Protein: Metallo-beta-lactamase domain-containing protein
Organism: Thiohalocapsa halophila
Amino acid sequence: MASSHITRSLSALCLSAALGLTSAAAGADIAPIDIDMPLHKVSDHVYYVRGVPGIATDNKGFISNAAAIITDDGIAVVDALGSPSLAKRFIDELRKVSDAPIKTVLVTHYHADHIYGLQVFEDLGAKIIAPGGFQDYLDAPAAEERLEERRFSLDPWVNEDTRLVSPDVVITEQTEIGLGDVTLDIRYLGPAHSDGDLAVLVRPDNVLISGDIIFEGRVPFTGSADTGHWLAVLESLDDTGIEALIPGHGPAASEPAAAVSRTLDYLKYTREQMAAAVDEMIPFAEAYEAADWSRFQKLPAFDAAHRRNAYGIYLSLEQEMLGQ
């Protein structure tokens, strides 16, 4: 889709935001949340908030990152956090540095910790943009089941008023959007960490907002990911000229190549260990206990995520071997 078309659409659909809707109006019925959420400035235009390492319900659900690109012509947000309450809090932090309208939200992928805040931005009149593959998540029974579980485990911040939001625009190829004096280079990555992923390069700041294809300072969560394609994405990622990287989880990295290599190393090593076991028809539990995981054991979320990751990769490699 041409960038000029998207830019015109953004201007039209954000009219309600430009007419004076405020975050307070959008969040009038949203449960307040008492949580530490400082806004970090990364470059002239780019800010982000950083969740803590942990499982989905740790830190009142604030475990993932969200970013904002602030210009005189409006704000673009990348990812919406894990509850309407967190999204409202994020907007309150943004209002400390800008009163410009929030024109769009770019969703790097459809996982619960990145999308449950979308309704707050939708109610402000922002346009929601997401990668192809989002529908595989929303159409699956697991999406409603996960929401029901979070209405219990993250009550009152996720509750009966929390809804799943579909995007207004779907990206399936590299696309550029102009916003004020910046260009958002949206890179469609296909099914990697999720059923569909995208990353956003902000120019001229040269900040890459990667979503969950990069986990910094913690063990990644692989779930049912296509780790083979995920590896290929990381190996082909051109980080030339990138000055900072904001991952889906963890602190922003001033050395993007190192951040990419750490996630790549984790995926590659874990796949190699599990592939060897599958080739030799070694049962998972035996293979897991025999492998040397010491290089990752001190990372946050290792105990919570790593064994599950390895098992998911083992099963997927079994299916690959069987040609399924």
